[in-house]
Amino acid sequence: MASIQRTSPANDQRENGRQHVFDAIRQAGRIARIDIARETQVSPATVTAITSELLSAGLIEEITPEGDRTGAKRGRPRVALKVRGAAHLIAGIKISDRSATVILVDFEGQTVGEYDHELPGPVMSAEEIVDLVMRALAGACAAAGRHVREISGVGLGLAGLIDATRNFVHWSPSLDQRNVELGRMLSDAMPVPFYMDNDANLVAKAEQLFGEARNVSDFIVITIEQGVGMGIVIDGKIYRGERGCGAEFGHTKVQLDGALCRCGQRGCLEAYVGDYALLREANIRGSAQPEDDLSALYARAKAGDAMARSIFDRAGRMFAMGLANVINIFDPSLVILSGEQMTFDFLYGSDVLDRVKSSVVQVDAPLPEIRVHKWGDLMWAKGAAACAMEGVSELTIRNLGADAA
Amino acid sequence: MASIQRTSPANDQRENGRQHVFDAIRQAGRIARIDIARETQVSPATVTAITSELLSAGLIEEITPEGDRTGAKRGRPRVALKVRGAAHLIAGIKISDRSATVILVDFEGQTVGEYDHELPGPVMSAEEIVDLVMRALAGACAAAGRHVREISGVGLGLAGLIDATRNFVHWSPSLDQRNVELGRMLSDAMPVPFYMDNDANLVAKAEQLFGEARNVSDFIVITIEQGVGMGIVIDGKIYRGERGCGAEFGHTKVQLDGALCRCGQRGCLEAYVGDYALLREANIRGSAQPEDDLSALYARAKAGDAMARSIFDRAGRMFAMGLANVINIFDPSLVILSGEQMTFDFLYGSDVLDRVKSSVVQVDAPLPEIRVHKWGDLMWAKGAAACAMEGVSELTIRNLGADAA
DNA sequence: ATCATTTAATTTGATCTTTGAAAAAAATAG
DNA sequence: CTATTTTTTTCAAAGATCAAATTAAATGAT
What we know:
DNA-binding, homodimer, alpha/beta, five-stranded mixed beta sheet, Nucleotidyltransferase, domain 5, 20% strand, 3 domains
């Protein structure tokens, strides 16, 4: 097995090069050595050296040249390289309040299998979560005709305040206790690297690796699930504040002494756009029977019900204000609004986006691009898989040097 | 003279090492080689090699050992190294609406001279600014008994939207035109590197090099002058969004469709806490003669005038809300509130800080530290000098390799 | 067919850096 | 005066990167 120890001094430099080259290959999908050299600013000689290492380690593979021959008409044809999917099997799991969704992907990011595991209840003990994860992984593997032992890394997505650097759960709505060393417990139950993070960062990773933010080094992702989440990527890395719990977009205040939030404070954005906030308003306004179905409320708004429409309107205005604040602070080049169906209609609509644009500081430079990305319900699990994939890549490449000895 | 060309491949690595070591020395003030090795994770052998280069280049110097002998009782005594102040003379200039303040510092950051230059008027043409800078530098040098030609770098602070990476002024209240290549014009007038930035980033640099944020890699600085500014430091570097004009804290919205801001939008924080916002309120409220002196208004508030007090109260509440939002988004380890006298009393008071703390998402981890830093009126110029100092250091060290050839 | 041409990839030799280990230097304790 | 301790420097070994030269693999032209 590979060891973590530092082997030789210059090995450090080489590891860096390997990481660079591998990233370039993953980003490009398929790319010839000469183009890697151009992109990474590394000499062709070194690219040859590094790719040959990666090839013999089985992490990448050559593509048998097809009849494309783009560009050049003469000369030795370039042979493209790509990540070798079979090199690793990666799992991503997202635990929501109803179920655990698992996705299996290969090292290229191709989906190998999906699986959904019902939850006994929305809140569990740490031991139950560990057990659940193990059974979900087993189920997913069985369904895909793979074996659990083939998995080389697992990403886990949880709502709440997660410290991803320590695989530590400050708090999660799925857990019945605070401050859990969940990462350690999982590693004890299954000897593969685990990677945990909160929902929004998950989606940020997914956008970066598979989605709208490929080749973008600074961007922001906003997601809406139960609450409102934000993922910040600066310089290619997820930014996670000091205590590992930054980007609490949902709890930025949009109104002085405003509506009561479930966090106990007043005026949080979430207290205006969250599910419970919308339903609360609908109920207060004197409807005969208590409203508890958001889609029904939404249907009424669409049908023209003034009261229902007003509820969604205010949510949209507040959301626009919060988002504009984030843009004013970060001035990112790209903002991605990720979400599922309904979110789009009432929060990601053009009227809201227009409002955002008119609330951003104006300069003689184009406004940041706001892109809307409609994912399927596997978005979260895919993000978890993306995190694990990144982690496994880094680990494998680091260990290449040590193993060579 | 030194050239910018890349010399050898591995030179890159060496430059990195030099930069690291030099930073360690500057940060520590005085430090022995063995401790540099410990801190930078570089071997003692390499530290010796690098420091000997820096020594012979005159950038650092050995300190004649004094009778301290901290710690160890036997063995060869460590000789401390420090930055050699005489290596460079650096100037920092801040242009406000009334005057241009110049500070001269040596390479250690020690103040060598100060100088204040009256402005003909608050708004000038680009040519007038260039001229003004030249005359201010000359004046400062004359007063300090130095020659302008000794200066190796100049930092310039301006209010407005500045793109520091290109030394480009999108807009500044001091300039009568937009989109000015001020950096190029200055370089044409005087052949030294110029470094420009907006006020808040300036102060952030000053805090990082000379102030409260030494050895802190992630922090936020809030400053109040005419408007409200923010500087963000992530991973030791100033964060400047995509268009080079992020961190527009003053124009984050704290009220939906709120008070009119001079930027033309509604609800900006600045429209509640800026000088003009406070005076505007005071005047609207039916006082006999128009109020145009903020300190008079403030005195009335302190004396118990309910109306005046209410004005400052609201400003404080809005400020707290905006600051809490920033903290919720960034989760920084340190927030520094930098400013001059009056700001403290009504915005940086304990009641406002308490309000901030109670609006931040609560976790089982200590809240970010909020430190208040009262600078003299040289704060801005010092920040400009800090920027220049950093730039000159980097440049000098980069050129070491080239010059050696 | 064969050869010149073109482009991609690999090999080779030189240059540099970093580092561990050994040596030297500079002090104190006994 | 010698042994010990700690810091600094020297030295040789181990790699890494790159420019230049070479090889490989195609197409066009004659």
